[in-house]
Structures are given as C-alpha cells and as structure tokens.
Amino acid sequence: MARYISRRLLELVIVFFGVTFVIYCAVFLLPGDPIAALGGDRPLPESVQQQLRLRYGLDLPIWQQYLDYLGGLARGDFGTTFAGQSVGEQMASRWPTTIKLALTAWTLTVLISIALGLAAGLRRGSALDRGVLLGTIVAESVPIFVMGVMAQYLIGITLGWAPIAGVSDGWPRAYLLPALIIALYGLAGVSRLMRGSVIDTMRSDFVRTLRAKGMSQGNVVGLHVMRNAAAPVVNVLAIQLGSLLGGTVVVEAIFNINGVGQLLYKAIQDQEGTLVVGVATTLVFIFLVTNVLVDILSSVLDPRIRHD
Amino acid sequence: MRGLLKGAGAASVAFALVLTGCSTAADGGEGAPAELVIGSSDPVPNLVPGRQSNAFGLVMSVFSPLTFLDAEGELSYVAAESVESDDQITWTITLRDGWTFHDGTPVTAQDYVDSWNTVAYAPNAFENSGQLAVIAGYSDLNPAEGEPATDELSGLAVVDDLTFSVTLNQADSQFPVELSQAQTAFYPMPPSAFDDLDAYGKQPIGNGPFAVTTGWTEGEPIVAERYQDYAGDEPTVNKITWVPYSDRLTAYTDALAGNVDIVRLPANRMKQVADDFADDHIYSFSGPAISYLSIPYWDARFDDVRVRQAISMAIDRDAINEALFGNLNSPATAWTPSIMPGNPDGICGKYCEYDPQAAAALLAEAGGFEGQLTIHFPGGAGHDDLFNAVANYLRQNLGVDAIARPSVGWAEFSEDRNNEVLDGPFFARWGALYPSQQSTLRAVFTSAPGCTNCGGAIIPEVEQALNDADASGSEDGEAYAEAQRYIADQFPIVPLFEESYNFVTSDKVAELTASAAGEPLFTDVILAED
Fold it and tell me: B335 φ, ψ to 5°?
C-alpha cells in the first residue's frame, strides 16, 4: 500500500509540471494581446502598454516566463494579475466559497441519490422505480441555467424562501438553492448506479444465506447490502466531488457567488495567464488527490481490492 | 422634498446604519434611512481615479470634479471657482476655498499637480493616463522607448495654494469640458495617497460628498457614507452600498426581488423590462456613445463610396432598435450622438434611412460586390444579435453573401483591427467621457490615439476642421459640425445607433437623474416617501 501511495504521489508531481506548462502555453497562445485589451473600448496609451508588458515580463520568451512563474511558485507566490491583484489572495478569498458550495451540493447528491437508488433497487419494477428514473432523467436533461433561473423566480422571488444572489446570508441559507441545482445533475447517474448495485447485491449468495439464517430485511439491507452496494457508488461520488469543484461555473454566475468557477471564467476571458494557471492547477491537484483517496477508500470498503 | 431629506441628514445616519440594505424606507419623516444599494459590475480592480475604468458611479460619488456638465450639456463649476484662458492654450484654474479631503487635509493646487503628474507618469502605467495627453510635457513622461527623463508635466505650474496654470500642447477650447466629471484622471488625490497607491486604490480618500467607509475587498460590497464636512451641494442620501454582481442578469433578477435599488439594465432584457418593472422604475438616459459599422479601408472592394452608402441604406435601424433594444436606443443620423452640443442631427440624410430598393440600385451602379462579406465583431460581449441582423439585411437587400463572425474575445478582435487584417466591415463604438463632438470625432476620425482604424481612411479636411474648431473658442459645437460635413461627403463608415444608458430601480427610488456622461447621479437620487 505504501509503495502504491508513493507512486501515485510521484505521478502527482509529473502531472503538476505537465499541466501547468500546457495551460501556460494555451493561455499564451490565445489570439490577441491581453494588455491591449485591458482598456476595452478605450485603448491604453502605447507607453502605458509598454510599461505593463515590461512589468509582467510579457516581452520575455514563453519558457522564461514559465520558469519565472515556477520560481515564484516555489517561494509561495502565485503571481499577480494585470490589474496588480495578488493571485494567491484572490484564490484564498474564493476557494472557501466554492468548497462550501461543492460540499453542500455533494452532500445533497449523496443523500438524495443513495436514498432514491436504494428505494428503486429494493422495489424493482414498481411505480416508484419508474418514477425515480423518469424524474432524475427530466432533471438532468433541462439545461442547468434554465433550471437555475427558474428556481430563482419560483423559490427566490415568488415564494421568497431563499436569497437569489450572493452568499451574504451565509451557510446554509444562501447555499442551499444553488447547491440543489448542482446536485440535480448528479442524481440520475448515481441513483441508477446505486439501484443496479443494490439489485446485484440483493441477488448474491450471501444475502440468501443471511435471509436463510433468519436475519430481518432491515438488518440485511442496513448492515450488509448497503456496504457492499456502496463500493462502486463511492468511487463515482468521490470523482464527482472533484469535478464539482470546477463545474460550478454556471451556477456561480447565475447566483452571483464569488467562487473559483467565476474567477476562472473571467480569467480566461481576460487572458490573465497567471490566474488561469493558478486556479486550474489547484483544480487538477484536488482532482488527483481525491482520486488517490478514492482508491484507498475503496480498498477499505471492499478488502478484495488491493493496490500493490 | 429634496430640502426635507437634506434636513434629515445627520440624525438619520446612525439610524440608517442599523438597517440593512434591503429595508424599505421606514415611517418617513425624520428617521428616513436615506441609503441606497447599487448593483455594480465585478470585478472593480482599482479605485484610484486615474486607474478605474468600470467604477464611474462610485468614483463620481467619492470625488468631486473641477467642472460639471448636466444632462443638457450646461457647464458649471464644482471644485473649481473658474477655469479661464485668453488663448485656449494656457489655462488658469482657481479652486474654491475651504474644500477638504475626507482625511481632513485641505485640497490645494499642489495636490492637483501631484495627482496629474502621478497619473501621467508612464512607469506607473495608469489606465486613464491618456486623458491627460493634451497637457504640455505628456510625451516627455511617456516616451516611445525607455524610461522618461522627468516625472513632472512641464505644462503644470502652481501659482498659489488655490491657483495653478495648465499649458496645453495646442489650442483647445474644450478644456473646461474635458475637466468634467467622467474624466476621472483629473480628480485630486491627497498627499497621503502617494505613500501607498495600492492601498489607496482599495480605499480611496476623495474630495467628494461621500467617504468610503468599507473599502474594496474581493467580491464584497463597498460602502460609502456622507462626508459631513463636504463643501459642495449636500447629497440627498446618507449611505451608498455598491454590491458587486458578476452577472448583470443576476443583478436584474435581484432588483426584481427588491434587494438592490439601482442596477444597469442588461442588453438582453431591453425587450422584456417593460413587463418586469413599472414605467417609473425604468430610466433611459441618452449617453454620449455611438456605434458604427466600420469599413476596412484597406480592402479595395469598399473603395467606392456608393458601396458604403448602399450598405448603410440596406440596414433597417428602426426595426433593429425595436426588435433588439426595445426602442431604448435611437438610430444614428450623424457621426456623433445627438446629446453633443451643436450636433448636426440628420447630416447623414437619406443614406441613414432604410431604402432597400435604392440601396440595391446604388450597389449595382457601383459595380456590385465580389466575394463574401464578413462582418467582424468581438465575441462574448452581447453583440451577436445586432450583427446577425445587419448581415441578414445585407444578404436580403443587397444580394451579397454576408455573414457575421464573432472573434474569440476582445483581445483577438482589437489586435486584428489594429493590424488591418479584418476582411470585412466591423464593429466600432465610441463612448465619450465628455459631451463634445470633439471627443468622438478625434477618437474615431483622426490619427490621434483612440479607436485605431475605426473611422476608415483618414480625411485630412476633418483633422483640419477639428483643429480650427479647437482654436476658435466657440462653445456651441457649430465649428465641430463643420467637420462632419466632410465625413458625410466621404462616408467612410456607417453610423448605426446612439446608445442609451439604461437603469432599473426598486420602489425606494422616486427619481433618478443623470449627468451628461449618461451615468446616474447617486448623490442626487430622490427617495420615495411612504
């Protein structure tokens, strides 16, 4: 196990350099000049543009810019944006919001989809089973911004139950509605997977044995089926957590939540290279780390899986 | 009404503090919480007046300009007592006595000179530096290559505590107008600002009616409260909070929910706004901005003036205005917006009126059009509907193979435009910061820095007419209208729409007014009594 973990950690380092370099080049290769575009409609004087290029090292070759960036990173400096804001500070102020939002959404996904999957799996073929299938597919097929704006009008304005913009009301009030919208999109997949997994497990020999020994249905499901059926689902859920962190862009925009998704979107639009690389790298890192954790967790849940 | 609210002043500040942004005006009378919540754009990178480019409303509340232009284009003096010149080259600015910054230090002529030097100094790389380019010595602080030899504008000289003189590069009768509210590079900063301009950019100390009490933090609201020692006209509100919205649509929805009092109307809600808000909650101010369909003068297919005129006549501006802008903008009839003093409205004549038959005939007369006509515009900025509609009209009425193509973003578009590689008509727009035809004409139709390549081939007569107008000293704009006569003859580019700056308000706002810059005056908002 230790060897496995150290190998995965080594992979992390390689992926880190690869990803930062690729993203750095990608932003650099975008058409147009970010400095000239800083002023929007009203162009900046040539002398001002020159100073800014000099200040941010844009006159240097790309490999040197990248090395300078890595050098800064080694000192814990994420660099600054073209407007002079510290990238590190910006990320520090926004990550907590996105993590809260993603974790809330993820918890909702876990609770709702496992409950739905379990219910559907145990009552296979019933009206409930078909209802869950239909409902989750409808929820997933409506575009996320349509769902978001609809929820704002219905729940935010008409009913007045939840704020529609910003997080000034704090957790959980301000986070529940956007988190629910995000959660809706994971439901169909995870609940289907849970359902299938439950059905498979219910059919297995050990369940028949347990039943034969006279164990109650509640104990069979609660103590044994759940644990065995959960193993594949935990894998998917954990990977979802990783992508949730990066996938909140649309919902953050609709609900005016100043999270990392917003930051990344703006940064790409404005070609703020250092910001894009900073955010994207942290996202990749989180994704990789959750993957390692998932592997470890799944071997705990199912001792048959061994990583050697 | 206004007097009553002024009187409510000090007593209600404490009371207002207790109430949150979404409260509606309470029991009226003495304790009315005269505070506003304004939806602002995000992000606001820097609030130094010489740097801000998307926080006009905030900076205009925290600072007071030397001169002010009201919605009728009438000039008055605010922080300045007078701005005078005999030859239009050397101007003497006299400040009003008794003005202080929010930190208590008096506003002096030296502060203005220091501030302007700082803004103009190239190594500082301040975004609004170009506004000072008219002052003598600007080019010494902004050399084409290398570091400047000096950090002081040679055109500025302090006479005494309240007087300083400004020498310009050339005669410019519009200088007092250029000092007005939206040219924020001309605002003064107190001595303490220069110690740490980064910190100052987060919590600016100004000379205006409102002092910033909660400075800028990423994604958080900025709060300003009435400055008790303000020497100018008293504002009608006590406290203003700017809440940043990353998406204008969300700000709009939040205004529907009553959580924010004033927000800018997003372009894609112009059609719908009349259903969502009551008439007296929708404000449309004519702005000093105009959009064009610019013509690539480097493409020989557009050399014949009749081709350009045919394109102009084939576009139904009224129909587009109704369908896309809910009639809030207005079709352009000249090359500058009609809000400009002395604007020659209608100088474009029949060529700005929709006439598909005449357009097709004119194009045929000119020998038709070869190949594909690609209209270029910056993507992701909400121009898609407009330029798709324009391409549609050209396709249907002129029988040309017209398509509209967005760029990846503003950066790609402006680079291709500056390097003359766009192979078809393209988006151009100029939002002037002061209402004078001079601003738009100079930026678009001369070789001066502004909108590069936006105005078609340079017409020497236009530049000459503008120089004459600058030197003439007349204020009615008649001399600038002269320049547009040459433009109308040559028809270098196609004027499209005069823009309006649109806002929606909550029930709390009884009346919103704007200045000539098209920006609402948050300090003069009249609040509803209930």
Answer: -95, 0
Q: How many angstroms separate the CA atoms of B493 and B383, rounded?
A: 18
Find the residue in A nearest to B53 (Cα). A39
Comparing B233-242, B254-263, B441-450, the range with the smallest average pLDDT is B441-450
Question: Any chain B CB within 8 A of the CB of A255?
Answer: yes
B80 in Cβ contact with B86 (< 8 Å): no
pLDDT at B43: 62
| Residue A97 near residue A257, CB atoms below 8 Å | yes
CA distances from B343 to A233, B261, B290, B346, B352 (A): 70, 34, 13, 9, 16
Interface of A with B in 103-132 (CB under 8 A): none
The number of angstroms, rounded, from the C-alpha of A306 to the middle of its chain's C-alpha atoms is 27
Return d(Cα B356, Cα B315) in angstroms, integer: 8
The whole-number average pLDDT for the span B173-186 is 94
pLDDT at A160: 81
Nearest to A51 among B123, B246, B254 (CB): B123
Taking only the tens place, the pLDDT of each residue in B285-325 is 988 999 999 999 999 999 999 999 999 999 999 999 999 98
Q: Are B38 and B240 in contact (CB under 8 A)?
A: yes
* Facing residue for B219 by CB, picked from A36, A44, A258: A258
Q: Which of A33, A29, A32 is nearest to B407 (CA)?
A: A32
How far is B268 from B249, CA to CA, in rounded Å? 8
Q: Which residue of B has its CA nearest to A258?
A: B219
CB contact under 8 A, A84 and B198: yes
What are the chain B neighbours of A269 within 8 Å (beta carbons)? 380, 409
- Contact (Cβ atoms closer than 8 angstroms) between residue B83 and residue B67: yes
CB nearest A44 (choices: B127, B413, B418) = B127
Q: What is the pLDDT of residue A229?
A: 83
- Could you report the predicted ipTM of this complex, rounded to two decimals? 0.75
Taking the CA of residue B7 and the nearest CA in chain A, the distance in Å comes to 32
User: A146 at the B interface (CB within 8 A)?
Assistant: no
Contact A93 B429 (CB under 8 A): no
Q: Of the candidates A45, A93, A153, which has its C-beta nearest B449's C-beta?
A: A45
Establish if A269 touches chain B: CB-CB under 8 angstroms. yes
Which pLDDT score, from 0 to 100, does residue B46 have?
Answer: 85
Chain B interface mutation, best of A44, A47, A159, highest count of B Cβ atoms under 10 Å: A47
Confidence at residue B421, expressed as pLDDT on a 0 to 100 scale: 92
Model confidence pLDDT, tens digit, residues B48-61: 999 988 889 999 99
Q: Distance between alpha carbon B431 and the CA centroid of its chain, in Å?
A: 5
Closest of B279, B240, B254 to residue B521, by C-alpha: B240
Region A20-43 average pLDDT: 78
Read off the pLDDT band of B146 (50, 70, 90): confident
Q: How close does chain A come to B510, measured CA to CA in Å?
A: 22
Model confidence at A33, pLDDT cuts 50, 70, 90, reads: confident
Structure confidence at residue A244 as a pLDDT band (50, 70, 90): confident
Q: DSSP characters for A233-297?
A: HHHHHHHHHHHHHHTTHHHHHHTT--SHHHHHHHHHHTT-HHHHHHHHHHHHHHHHHHHHHHHHH
Interface residue A158 vs chain B (CB under 8 A): no
Contacts of A205 (CB under 8 A, 6+ apart): none
**pLDDT greater than 70 at residue B28:** no
d(CA B56, CA B520): 10
The per-residue pLDDT of chain B, averaged, comes to 88
| A127-136, A190-199, B11-20, B447-456: segment of lowest average pLDDT | B11-20
Report how many Cβ contacts below 8 Å link chain A to chain B. Answer: 151
Distance from the B256 Cα atom to the nearest Cα atom in chain A, whole angstroms: 8
Q: Can you give the C-alpha Rg of chain A in angstroms? A: 24
